[in-house]
Amino acid sequence: MQLEVEDNKVGGTNTTATIAPERQELAQFPQDNVDYYQKIKWNGWGDTRKFLHTLEPSGTIAITTPTASAVPLPSLANYIKKELTLNGQTSNLENTPSIQLDQINIAAPRPINPSFERELQSIFTPDQLKTDKFARITHVYGKSIRDLVRLRIGQINNAPDLIILPQSHDEVEKLMQSANKYNVIVIAYGGGSNIVGACEPVTTDRFVVSVDMRRMNKVLWVDRREMTACIQVGIMGPDLEKELRKSGVSLGHDPDSFEFSTLGGWLATCSSGHQSDKYGDIEDMAVSFKTVTPTGTLELRNGARAGAGINYKHIILGSEGTLGIITEAVMRVHPLPQAEEYFGFMFPSFTHAINALEQIRRSDILPTMIRIYDPDETRLSFSSKPSKGAFSEFISSAIKHVCLSIIGFEGSKKQVDFHKKSVFDILSKNGAFGLGQSPGKTWAEKRYDLPYIRDFLLNHNMWVDVAETTVSWSSLLPLWKEAKQAFNDHFRSKGIPSWICAHISHTYSNGVCLYFIFASKQNADNEMTPYTEGKRLMTDIVLKHGGAISHHHGVGYEHVPWMNRYVSNGWINVYRKIKEVVDPKNICNPRKLMPTQEEENGQKKYLFDVLNVKQPKL
Amino acid sequence: MQLEVEDNKVGGTNTTATIAPERQELAQFPQDNVDYYQKIKWNGWGDTRKFLHTLEPSGTIAITTPTASAVPLPSLANYIKKELTLNGQTSNLENTPSIQLDQINIAAPRPINPSFERELQSIFTPDQLKTDKFARITHVYGKSIRDLVRLRIGQINNAPDLIILPQSHDEVEKLMQSANKYNVIVIAYGGGSNIVGACEPVTTDRFVVSVDMRRMNKVLWVDRREMTACIQVGIMGPDLEKELRKSGVSLGHDPDSFEFSTLGGWLATCSSGHQSDKYGDIEDMAVSFKTVTPTGTLELRNGARAGAGINYKHIILGSEGTLGIITEAVMRVHPLPQAEEYFGFMFPSFTHAINALEQIRRSDILPTMIRIYDPDETRLSFSSKPSKGAFSEFISSAIKHVCLSIIGFEGSKKQVDFHKKSVFDILSKNGAFGLGQSPGKTWAEKRYDLPYIRDFLLNHNMWVDVAETTVSWSSLLPLWKEAKQAFNDHFRSKGIPSWICAHISHTYSNGVCLYFIFASKQNADNEMTPYTEGKRLMTDIVLKHGGAISHHHGVGYEHVPWMNRYVSNGWINVYRKIKEVVDPKNICNPRKLMPTQEEENGQKKYLFDVLNVKQPKL
User: Fold this and answer.
1) CB-based contacts of A389: which residues, under 8 Å, 6+ apart?
2) Contact between B3 and B62 (Cβ < 8 Å)
3) In chain B, which among 252-271 make CB contacts under 8 A with chain A?
4) Residues of chain B neighbouring A575 (CB-CB closer than 8 A)
5) In the 3-class helix/strand/coil scheme, how is A70-101 assigned residue by residue?
6) Contact B271, B552 (CB under 8 A)
7) Which domains does chain A show, CATH number per domain?
8) Nearest to B298 among A310, A566, A570 (CB)
9) By the 8 A CB rule, do A545 and A475 touch?
10) Chain A within 8 Å of B438 (Cβ-Cβ)?
11) Chain B: residue nearest A415 by CA?
12) Does A553 contact chain B (CB < 8 Å)?
């Protein structure tokens, strides 16, 4: 029987409870006039109305979205069973559902200081202050595998005591002053899409406020002469682009998390979007912004590049809420491109593709985007397509070495044509086979979907994690080979089926972003060691090959144990001094970004390890 | 009688002493196996063998270079007389020669701490430690108008006590440790080309070492795969490019000071080169570098862009030696361009030129360089040409509104052709008249020559200063108009002939670099008020229009009085904390970059004003 799903309808009777518990939660929340955190999955990725599920009795995997019900992905189940393998044994898709929201109990909020409470009541309306269980549960974690597993088993130890939804820069300033006065921890919360533990309350000694920025979602002005826009940073990706497009401009920042992340999150974590090769990374787009710190607001000059002392914007970019809260930003924008053309190419091997990529980079005539999938991710890509064409079948079954590449061009028609010609010449010299624009369209449609597959796998006794890095051209292939081999060796030697793939997503003159996705079977009791083992293994190998600890995911607490190896110790001291002057009581997102002195000295365990405890069975 | 000058010959008899005293000094120094500071003018700009002078009895101005003697610049004298005007009265070129080196007396060095001296002797060879008068005089100032005037009247109050010429990173580390131990002030000295007082010893309480980095001039390696090069930062522009070109690559950084500045100076001051529109500003080229601070060496990761916390390189870029000394840098390089084509264009007006520039910027197809001279600088440009063509004459006499533009393209032939076509279309739509490649060639040959004209004017009872800024598109014309008007009004109302011109040299999506050159008659007793008045006036107007305090000249002590207006106070505190942690004794280039607390509170005068004292007559 095919699953019945009510398309695009909110609050109706729910017929899919056992397969997609998210639908049940959804019934509680109307989709209009609610805050963003009420619209998205509390225990998974993204839109509550979008999820993968199996069709019975065939076992075919299907996807349901707000606009299409139960669209079969005919090759995916087979791909998972065959690839997540050990000694030729196929894996089964066992059901491992999440706990339901109403089954979760969390501790009551800490008592609030009555003076602090009075001050908050003078700044905010009651509607901006939330202490209900749902608000607290949806602001405790991000979307890492550890976060989701903990949510799915109901392990929530450090929920923030209060959620505040400010609506203006002034409100954030007043809040910060008050929080500093009463020694209250303040954690900026954007889209909550981070996967490095960036927003999790991890100290237990003080009252914790999670500052949900998503009501600060206005584009304040667009200046088409300077090609800049002033934007409240709580705006989500799609809303931002929708607003900018009304003025005929775009930011051009499109990270994987685009649909569920905010401008503030992008700035605070040094985000990078799919088209960064043309439009730059977020630091290139940021002209100026206001940062509210416990000791005052730090402002920057709105103007083009200047060489007049230190460029202070870079002290906030990447500071991940540990120095304060960014409220409004002036961003560079660009006119909407006249042409946007995305093509698929198939290379005989990953090496062929990398050679072509390097030659394109050297040619100085760059596409807007070049993504290259290694053979394993190429097969995943074809296997997760809704249609089951002959070519897809051929790829996903027979060929072990070919690599898919998606190459996009944006700009004026004449510029796109010129760039295409140059790039296509290099591609054909490197054995690339053109697939036309159809794979480009598919990529554009599906580009945000991978986390939904992860949710499905979590529902079926598997886990998936990712690791990304910036690596030099010389270390790219050695890192790719060693990481893949080491990951599979590690898990398979323990009798656990595993799978790992990678793609290249951003290029620079001196390196690329290499992105790994890896998975294995969950162990029976949902114990977290496998995820932390996988993550540790991958991070060690990345650093061994001189890779960056992250290209765009950031640090949070997940990468802190490696920061002493990654950042020269002198800089750690500099960071601590900056922190001391802007946040003397350490109220802003403590224990993130950099090791504490105690962690460094071994007097305190890294959070990475503290949270690697054996969990109760489901 | 035409002046006799011995071409390209060093140490010979000098027949030009009264006109070009530099020649006399030169005789003392062989050109080989000497340090850079011994090769360049102690009281003017650049090569001792290159200078402007008049030919008697005609009064024609001529230029002598190492390869050409007394080449007449037939229109220049007339231009100066006519333009540096007041109520139609022409100005005469009176002789106001510099003092001679042997007429200058400077105070003996402060006594050196014997322990410090012993440590230095264990680190350095005697040849690396200089205390002679010439070494001390050539490391006290940069090349600002105030610096040159003070040198030319022999006013040298704060010469460094010791010049050290390190040859390796390790030597700088040892020196810094020792200096910190004995509380000795350390001032990094690159090419000494700065015009903001960046390297001047300005404290009188401690022993001062000027660290001349110019022996650290090796390209350590070039990696053609990553397109990076590791370079000792004391290397001068021409040597750097010569070395890189051996590997077929270029840095592409070509500031006005290129011939007499170092990579370290570029990094420490956030420099920007002529071709920044294509190759980026220095911060875009810098991958990583080592900075020796009093509390240890700060290192950065050599790799492509990463989003993993704060990008600490930006704390050193622009810090102007106040946090430590940069020793070695990994820089992005690029293959030598296949084609380099520079063209001249003439616009009917500055407004026409700016309209074209804005349209080119919006088209997203950018030349490598666009320089636009306003009508006054256009006439100067044609008047300082060696040949006296009919067109030059026409321009320099009759036309008051036309604007010269030099537009360059670099890259592969096909890329240059594509860009040219797009840019030329926009130019012709905006009334530009093509002059072919000859003005481009002239620009390339003469691009570093302006400071030599300044020296000539100093020799002839005039002074010249510059002010540059980054300004938004919207404020560009209003700033240009107001600054020019206000400058001339100010001086002419006092009965002093004056002159001001401007050009645009770098473009960004949200603004341009606007560069003013201004001059007036020196007052009779060489008192410095006119220069500081001019500088103050220009800086106030720049800030009024939202311009940057500098686009690429930096801060030094000249711009410090404006920093409280330019940088939010919170950032000043952050800077002070950073300084405190890396340089707790404040030994690195004190009183530069940021106001001290005492200056801010009015307890101490800004150096800008302290140095504005009435000087003795020549």
Assistant:
1) none
2) yes
3) 269-271
4) 309-310
5) EEEECCHHHHHHHHCEECCECCCCCCCCCCCH
6) yes
7) 1-73 (no CATH), 111-215 (3.30.465.10), 219-335 (3.30.465.10), 339-447 (3.40.462.40)
8) A570
9) yes
10) no
11) B365
12) yes
Q: Which of A527-531, B156-160, B444-448, B573-577 has the lowest mean pLDDT?
A: A527-531
Q: pLDDT band at residue B12, thresholds of 50, 70 and 90?
A: very low
Per-residue pLDDT of B18-51, as tens digits, reads 334 433 343 344 445 689 999 999 999 999 999 9
Give B218-262 pLDDT, tens digit per residue: 999 999 999 999 999 999 999 999 999 999 999 999 999 999 999
The catalytic residues of B are 515
State the Cα–Cα distance between residues A511 and A508, nearest whole angstrom. Answer: 5
Instruction: Name, in order, each residue with C-beta under 8 angstroms of A162's C-beta and a sequence gap of 6 or more.
Output: A109, A112, A120, A129, A130, A131, A207, A208, A209, A210
Q: Are B148 and B44 in contact (CB under 8 A)?
A: yes
Q: Does residue A57 have a cis peptide bond before it, meaning omega lies within 30 degrees of 0?
A: yes
Q: In terms of CA atoms, which chain A residue is nearest residue B335?
A: A362
Is some CB atom of chain A closer than 8 A to the CB atom of B471? yes
**β-pairing, A498-508 with A511-521?**
antiparallel
Number of other CB atoms surrounding residue A67 within 10 Å: 10
Q: Is A482 exposed, middle or buried (0-12, 13-18, 19+ CB in 10 A)?
A: middle
Of B227, B283, B307, the CB nearest to A509: B227
* A256 assigned to a ligand binding site: yes
Q: Which amino acid is at A227?
A: M
Residues A200 and A192: beta-carbon distance below 8 Å: no
A433: left (phi over 0), alpha (psi -120 to 50) or beta: beta
Quote the ipTM score: 0.93
Structure tokens at B474: 């919207």
In eight-state DSSP terms, residue B80 is H
At residue B226, what are phi and psi to the nearest 5 degrees? Answer: -85, -10
At A165, the amino acid letter reads L
Q: Do residues B291 and B324 lie in contact, with contact meaning Cβ atoms separated by under 8 Å?
A: yes
Q: Quick one: residue B100, left, alpha or beta (phi over 0 = left, psi -120 to 50 = alpha)?
A: beta
Name which of A320, A550, A580 is nearest B577 (Cβ-Cβ): A580
Q: CB atoms < 10 A from the CB of A481, how many?
A: 11
Q: Which of A207, A186, A202 is nearest to A292 (CA)?
A: A186
User: How many other C-beta atoms can be found within 10 angstroms of the C-beta atom of residue A597?
Assistant: 11
User: Which residues does chain B have within 8 Å of residue A364's beta carbon, measured at their own beta carbons?
Assistant: 334, 411-412, 415
Residue-level length of chain A: 618
B207 annotated binding-site participant: no
DSSP structure string for B455-495: HHHHTTTEEEEEEEEEE-HHHHHHHHHHHHHHHHHHHHHTT
Which residues of chain A lie closer than 8 angstroms to B580, CB-CB?
577
Residues of B in contact with A552 (CB under 8 A): 307
Q: What is the 3-state secondary structure (H, E, C) of B104-118?
A: CCCCCCCCCCHHHHH
**Under the phi-then-psi rule, with left for phi > 0, alpha for psi from -120 to 50, and beta for the rest, what region is A191?**
alpha
B265/B268 Cα distance (integer angstroms) = 5
* Chain B residues inside the 8 Å CB shell of A472: 226, 303-304
Nearest-CA distance from B206 to chain A in Å?
A: 25
Beta sheet of B162-164, edge-to-edge order: B129-130, B162-164, B208-212, B185-189
* Phi and psi, residue B4, nearest 5°: -95, 125
**CA–CA separation, B482 and B538 (whole Å):** 10
Q: Using the Cα atoms of residue A461, residue A374, residue A555 and residue A39 in order, give the sign of their dihedral.
A: negative
B271 is an annotated ligand-binding site residue: yes
Q: Is A425 in CB contact (< 8 Å) with chain B?
A: no
